[in-house]
Amino acid sequence: MPRKRKNKKRPVLLLFILTPPVIYAVHVFLLFLLDSAWGDGLMLHQYLNESRGGLARQLISDGWRALPVFYVVSLLLWFELRLLSRFLHRRGVVSAAMVGAATGWLLAFLLIGNSNAVVIPYTISGLLMATVLGWVAHPPMAGKRR
Amino acid sequence: MQFLAILLGASLLLGVTPVPAADHVWIVGGGPSFGDSQAQIELNVNWVIQVLNSSPGARQLHIYYANGNTPGKDVVLWLPPKESKETLQPLARVFNEVDANGESYHSHQIPHVIGGTEVSTLKPSLEKEFSELKPGDRALLVYNGHGLRDSNDAAGNTLRLWNNTRLSVREMDQIMNHIDPSVPVRFVFTQCFSGGFERLVHPRARDTLELGEANRCGFFAVAADREAEGCSASIKIGDYRDYSTFFFAALQGRTRTGQPIEGNPDRDGDGKVSLYEAHLFALSQAHNADLPRSTSEMFLERWQPWYLRWADTGAEPDNVYETIAREVAKKNGLPETGSALIREMKARRKTLTAALASLQDEQAGLDRAIGALQKEIKNDVTLRWPESGLPYTLNFVNFLKKDLGAAQDFILAHPRYAELVSKQDRHAALDVEMLRVDRDITQLDKILRLRTLARLQSQFERHATAKEREWYGRLMSCEGQGL
Predict the structure, then answer these.
(1) Residue of B nearest to A114 (CA)
(2) CB contact under 8 A, B452 and A40
(3) Residue A3 covered by a domain
(4) DSSP class of A99
(5) What is the ipTM, given to two decimal places?
(6) What residues in A contact B448, CB-CB < 8 Å?
(7) Is B225 on the interface with A (CB under 8 A)?
(8) Contact between A35 and B349 using a beta-carbon 8 Å cutoff
(9) Which B residues in the span 331-360 are in contact with A, Cβ-Cβ below 8 Å?
(10) Whose CA is closest to A79, among A99, A94, A65, A109?
């Protein structure tokens, strides 16, 4: 039976706008988990014993500085995914996730630090961001149709 | 060379001799009113003067204290009064004047005071003296008194000066602008919320990383939003040991009571103790409720970029702050490093916080019980001697003359008086216990802060720009000078 093709236009632009802030929020949550589990627990300490308002202001002010970088990285990943699919004939969400993880790892390793606690959150953030972008660029259904 | 000789000869001929550079120290101290100008502050200021006078090198002292040279009592000393009728203690206990009954007032005993600290006189005096400093001079400002917080802006934090006047960070910045920018200006602020005065190193006391043109640096007992030890009960307890107690002990090599200090503050082994080393000594040795900081440390905190903020918070880089963190942990019976330290600190904080909450609850309960007991006994006393409830009147004078003995005997024999005494004594003992717990909690905060500073310094070495390094270097160079 011929499958009925849906002419559904995805809100691609909206995803491009929303992905970096959402990934940044996830990134901060990852930092919180790592800080609480293997670090000094500074975030929880500040929340419980120091100024909660101060912590909130810090997170917001850091967020404003971080977001432009997350947007730039999302563009970088987008171009990487385009190049990958154009020249290597590799497309799909899994490939995108690998590219994102590698990019996040490389950027963190080169620019920030080489310890696991530094590299892990950036690697996971890169992986998640690229997964979303990969899904936007090459949805799984499209792969199956080919 | 020939030119220099000619210049020297000419200046000698003209009678112009170069004025030698000098060190100047400003000491501003005392409270805002006689009731808040504790003898402990006077004690500390006198000791600081002694330290400065006994230290190598010459320096000119400019001392401003409380009401200055105006006649009048401007220092309060609290000592627990004897439990006897002669000290009116029974009457004071019932009429809720136990604190006031232990107070005595005197005029300050600070030598060579130029004037008082009332802002209307202090400000022009400082402006005039600061403007007379010339290149080659060095300035040190030590403030020993009370402070207030502006919860909206740290640059609005103030010094509480005589006659309940105030001087804000911004005003102090304007006063210091009279100093030649090449003159190193060091400051030590020990009051509550003193960290707000860190803004003095930034242009127009703004909340920015950039340093101002002036060569300033400083040390503070606590953060801009935290009370210092001097604002706690210790100011009455007699076990007063604030930041300056340890800071100046390091510079003198002896404690305020004349005992040799524990440990060697000269960390770089150059035979001299710099102000920065004195600060590190206070960090390492002080077991009090202060959490001190320097301008260079606060610069590192300001500098930290978002991408390093919460990253790798378990790292333990090898530097002076990590060393001191280990020293403090060891002194407090904690593991020195690693996850064992963090686990133990969390467990101890939980215990201490619970203990503090329980003490606070107990004290709140005692407050209510004491109030009820006082009301009951006071009612019985005023029923028999109505004059006793009318202070500042002739009635009260007559009561003191005629009925004081009988009224106090009545109070002492009252069936609820023993209970009142017991509860009031417990209330006072709780102040001491809460201070002890607060000091223990502060040690945990200090270890965390030192570990954070250790990571910050390590991150700064790797990530800072040339300009940021220059600013940090300026602060370190200023803080690294001796007295």
Answers:
(1) B312
(2) yes
(3) no
(4) H
(5) 0.84
(6) 40, 42, 45
(7) yes
(8) no
(9) 339, 342, 346, 349, 353
(10) A99
Please give the Cα distance from B251 to B240 (Å, whole number).
Answer: 19
Domain boundaries, given as residue ranges, for chain B: 21-101+108-310+465-479
Residue A84 lies in a domain: yes
Number of domains in chain A: 1
Exposed, middle or buried by CB within 10 Å (0-12, 13-18, 19+), for B180?
Answer: middle
Chain B contacts of A65, Cβ < 8 Å? 305-306
Residues of B in contact with A73 (CB under 8 A): none
Examine residue A42 and state whether it is found in any structural domain, yes or no: yes
Distances (CA, A) of B69 to B53, B65, B112, B113: 21, 9, 9, 7
In this structure, are residues B64 and B153 in contact, taking their beta carbons and an 8 Å threshold? Answer: no
On whether the CB atoms of residues B63 and B116 are closer than 8 A, the answer is: no
B331 CA to chain A: closest CA distance, Å? 19
| Residues found in chain A | 146
Q: Give how far A92 is from chain B: nearest CA, Å.
A: 30
Tell me the C-alpha to C-alpha distance, in Å, between residue B366 and each of A44, B96, B360.
33, 13, 10
The distance between the two most distant Cα atoms of chain A, rounded to a whole number of Å, is: 65
Cβ of A66 and B306 within 8 Å?
yes
Full pLDDT tens readout for chain B, 483 residues: 454 445 444 444 444 455 578 999 999 999 999 999 999 899 899 999 999 999 998 999 999 999 999 999 999 998 888 999 999 999 999 999 998 999 999 999 999 999 999 999 999 999 999 999 999 999 999 999 999 999 999 999 999 999 999 999 999 999 999 999 999 999 999 999 999 999 999 999 999 999 999 999 999 999 999 999 866 555 555 566 889 989 999 999 998 888 899 889 999 999 999 999 999 999 999 999 999 999 999 999 999 999 999 988 999 999 999 999 999 999 999 999 999 999 999 999 999 999 999 999 999 999 999 999 999 999 999 999 999 999 999 999 999 999 999 999 999 999 999 999 999 999 999 999 999 999 999 999 999 999 999 999 999 999 999 999 999 999 999 999 998
Q: Report the distance separating Cα B405 and Cα A42, nearest Å.
A: 60
Partner A contacted by B208 (CB < 8 A): no
Candidate from A38, A62, A115 with C-beta closest to B306? A62
Contact B342 A35 (CB under 8 A): no
E-only strand ranges, B31-102: 59-65, 75-78
CATH topology (fold) of B21-101+108-310+465-479: Rossmann fold (3.40.50)
Cα torsion B385, B389, B391, B395 to 10°: value is -30
Whose structure tokens read 């150059």? B270
DSSP character string of B359-376: HHHHHHHHHHHHHHHHHH
User: By the CB < 8 Å criterion, does B307 face chain A?
Assistant: yes
Indicate whether A41 belongs to any domain. Answer: yes
Q: How far apart are CA B303 and CA B306, in angstroms?
A: 9
Chain A closest-CA separation from residue B459 CA (Å): 9
For residue B207, the distance in angstroms to the closest alpha carbon of chain A comes to: 13
Contact B313 A117 (CB under 8 A): yes
Q: How far apart are CA B362 and CA B359, in angstroms?
A: 5
